[in-house]
Write a structure and sequence with these properties.
The protein is of the alpha+beta class. It has two domains: about 160 residues, Immunoglobulin-like (Sandwich); about 280 residues, Rossmann fold, CATH 3.40.50.1460. The chain has eleven helices and 22 strands. Strand 18 and strand 19 form a beta hairpin. The radius of gyration is 23 Å and the shape is globular.
């Protein structure tokens, strides 16, 4: 069957660019073609970093970016989507090392048409070698800029670091296998570690947190792997795609659900921030996607209000929300990452669950900081949540853990998150919260 013209053009455009930029990386040549401004309809809706380009499905990079690059990876690639590109145009990738020095530039190269037909939409990427090349030894925060006709359109940050063996931690090596089966359950697990904005520090253990939670969902709670969307370093476009927008709540998560049959589990580890533009009594809380400038989070963050509102519209049987984040504008190490802002002064507006079938447990209150647990290589709250899932939260020893038991365990002032936050961070206050109804609902059954 002959493909539609639009589909065929898009494929040709992608194929030409992929081949062309790989060749220019090898030769280093450039074009002298005069550049003109793109069409007013031109846009670059998606741009992502990955260490593994799937040539048959390059769009995968936009929903599963992997900007935490090991120095043992073969390469790192910048994948870009173009829309509405007409006329004569030139594209360039500039790669910068952790010292801010230009490491490699493709030079300006024309985006050409094929067979006399201009391809207006397409996906292209450029990659540089890591393993066995000079980049292997240049550890730290890199960035790559994407230009069209000498105008900067996208800039992505990523890290190159040594691949280290993980410490064997009790919650990672003793994951309980239960007889629980929940084949219709759906989960979204997000670990945002590497932030593109130069002033935003990494969330050191976010990816490790996400991986551990995903493993517990399968082995302990009986979720099917294919029903778990585990995402790293998610930009705002991924949040919109997964959870929907203010005008359309039917995102990818909605489409995965079997009405009345599917339980939903949402986990997030990463930065949060307050909206500094709002009044003192209306400072809303926002999740900080990796491409977000937290100083203008109301413009490019994902509102916690919107998340809870859209989750309330899901036709799910039950919804669990686990949030290892805070909205103080301070990292787990105590570093303030919003310029000209004094944290701990203005608490964000409280967001409550909106349906009786929903329970949320969060890592901290108001303007408190969500801490890290260096010894265990996890965020502090996530470590205790996983420890509770192992059975430590089963206070009455009946072979089950309810949501109330889980909260009582993680919030124990004598041996839970509040105690260790004070102990590890010289008196830091961190008290988890719980919200919802039917707290006696069972989360884990071990028998």
């Amino acid at each position: 069957m002959k493909p539609p013209a639009r589909v065929k053009a898009k494929f040709i455009f992608a194929a030409i660019l992929v081949m062309f930029f790989w060749m220019t990386h090898l030769t280093g040549c450039s074009s002298n073609t005069a550049a003109v401004n793109p069409s007013p309809a031109f846009s670059m809706p998606n741009n992502a970093i990955t260490n593994d380009v799937d040539q048959s499905y390059p769009e995968k990079a936009f929903t599963n970016p992997k900007s935490d690059i090991a120095n043992t990876d073969e390469y790192v690639a910048s994948v870009t989507e173009f829309k509405g590109l007409t006329g004569s145009n030139e594209v360039r990738w500039d790669w910068f090392d952790p010292q801010g020095k230009l490491y490699y530039s493709t030079g300006n190269h024309p985006v050409s048409s094929s067979g006399g037909k201009t391809a207006t939409d397409g996906i292209a990427w450029h990659k540089i070698s890591v393993k066995g090349d000079r980049a292997e030894s240049l550890e730290g925060k890199w960035h790559v800029d994407v230009y069209v006709n000498d105008t900067l359109y996208k800039s992505n940050s990523f890290y190159i670091s040594k691949k280290t063996e993980s410490v064997f931690v009790d919650v990672n090596v003793n994951v309980p296998r239960t007889a629980m089966k929940n084949p219709d359950a759906v989960a979204v697990v997000i670990g945002n570690k590497n932030y593109w904005h130069k002033d935003v520090p990494e969330v050191k253990y976010a990816i490790r947190d996400a991986d551990a939670v995903s493993e517990y969902l399968v082995k302990t709670l009986g979720y099917r792997e294919k029903n778990i969307m585990t995402l790293y370093d998610a930009p705002v476009s991924v949040f919109n795609e997964l959870f929907g927008t203010s005008s359309n709540h039917k995102g990818k998560l909605f489409n995965f659900i079997k009405p009345g049959k599917s339980d939903v589990f949402v986990y997030y580890s990463g930065h949060g921030a307050p909206d500094l533009t709002a009044s003192e009594t209306e400072k809303k809380a926002y999740i900080v996607p990796v491409d977000c400038d937290p100083a203008s989070v109301s413009m490019n963050g994902y509102s916690l209000d919107l998340l809870y509102s859209n989750l309330a519209k899901l036709p799910a049987r039950h919804v669990t929300i686990i949030m290892d984040t805070c909205f103080s504008g301070v990292s787990g190490s105590g570093e303030t990452f919003i310029k000209s802002y004094s944290p701990f002064i203005l608490p964000v507006k409280t967001v409550s669950v909106q349906q009786p079938n929903t329970i949320s447990i969060t890592s901290a209150q108001g303007s408190q900081v969500s801490s890290w647990y260096e010894e265990k290589q996890h965020s502090l709250f996530t470590y205790f949540f996983l420890k509770g899932m192992q059975g430590a939260a089963d206070a009455n020893k009946d072979g089950k853990v309810t949501y109330q038991e889980m909260y009582d365990y993680v919030s124990d002032p004598h041996d839970g998150v509040p105690y260790y936050a004070r102990r590890l961070f010289n008196g830091r206050e961190q008290m988890p919260t719980i919200d919802g109804s039917n707290m006696d609902k069972v989360l884990v059954i071990y028998e």
